[in-house]
Amino acid sequence: MTRSSRRTTWTTETIRAVDLTDEDMVLVGGVWREIFDVWKDDDDPTVMFGEGEPTTTALLDKIDWDSPCWVGIRYVDEDRSTSRDIVDALHFFRLRELVQVQKEVPYVPPTPLQPPRGRKGKKRGHR
After folding, report:
1. From 78, 82, 104, 108, which residue has the greatest number of CB atoms within 10 Å?
2. Side-by-side strand order, sheet with 10-16
């Protein structure tokens, strides 16, 4: 079977929110969302959005604590977006919160069948 004709297999796994990365597919409110950006306590959203922007303010209000508590993610909200107007949304997880992510199962090429293992000792029915 060639690579182009085989089907990609996916599964879900549970990880801590602190381990989320850009482009993960994460379950948010019962809907799978593709993450575009992840912010943790040492990240500065002003670099991306600028000072005083609503997204910057929302992120800093949640992640800019003295002790790291939150992970902020930005994703496209497909329900509110159109082909001409992409709407993004923010969601926050506690660092230690368990989240569901999609993970591609690596392709393992098929191998020839292994011969059955023989039994040690005498064979049955032979004397």
Report:
1. 78
2. 10-16, 98-104, 25-28, 31-39, 70-76, 88-94
- Cα gap 20→39, rounded to integer Å: 10
pTM of the model: 0.71
pLDDT at 64: 76
Distance (Å, whole) CA 40 – CA 29:
20
Whole-number Å distance between alpha carbons of 73 and 90: 6
Share of the chain above pLDDT 70, in %: 83
Residue type, 25: M
pLDDT in tens, 49-107: 889 899 888 988 888 776 678 899 999 888 899 999 989 999 999 989 999 999 988 88
- Kindly list the domain boundaries of the chain, sorted by start residue: 10-104
Q: CA-to-CA distance for 33 and 99, rounded, in angstroms?
A: 12
